[in-house]
Amino acid sequence: MNHEGNAINREEYAKGYTLYALDLTPDLSSGDHYNLVKEGNLRMELQFQRPLTTTVNVVVYDELDNLTGIDKALNVIFDYTS
């Protein structure tokens, strides 16, 4: 078994199986450093040539740079709002 790639072969791709990975970090580094905390929205719009005859699933995985800390008074501090 090949352990490289996304495990979708050409035949599966032709049948509509796809996987897209996008680097949406502010500096396009996808690195391990923190970017400045900013607010924003992400929106996905899909248009198909014909109405779909079967269910389509979209999976979105999100990673955020959030910090959690504890001050001298043992208060837990978050850098985001819930």
Radius of gyration computed on alpha carbons? 19 Å
Give the spatial strand order of the biggest sheet: 1-2
Low-pLDDT residue intervals, each spanning 5 or more residues: none
User: What is the helix/strand order?
Assistant: HEE
Q: How much beta, percentage-wise?
A: 5-15%
Tally of strands: 2
Helical/strand content category: little secondary structure
Q: What is the CA-CA span between the terminal residues?
A: 43 Å
For the biggest sheet, the summary is:
2 strands, antiparallel
Question: What is the total domain count?
Answer: 1
Q: What count of helical segments does DSSP give?
A: 1
Mean pLDDT: 77
Helix content: under 10%
Q: How would the global form be characterised?
A: elongated
List keywords for this structure.
single chain, about 80 residues, little secondary structure, 1 helix, about 5% helix, elongated
Description:
With 82 residues, this protein is largely without helices or strands. The protein has one domain. The chain is 6% helix and 7% strand. It has one helix and two strands, in the order H-E-E. It has a two-stranded antiparallel sheet. Strand 1 (68-70) and strand 2 (76-78) form a beta hairpin. The protein is elongated, with a radius of gyration of 19 Å. It starts with 9 loop residues before the first helix and ends with a strand. The model has no long low-confidence stretch (mean pLDDT 77).
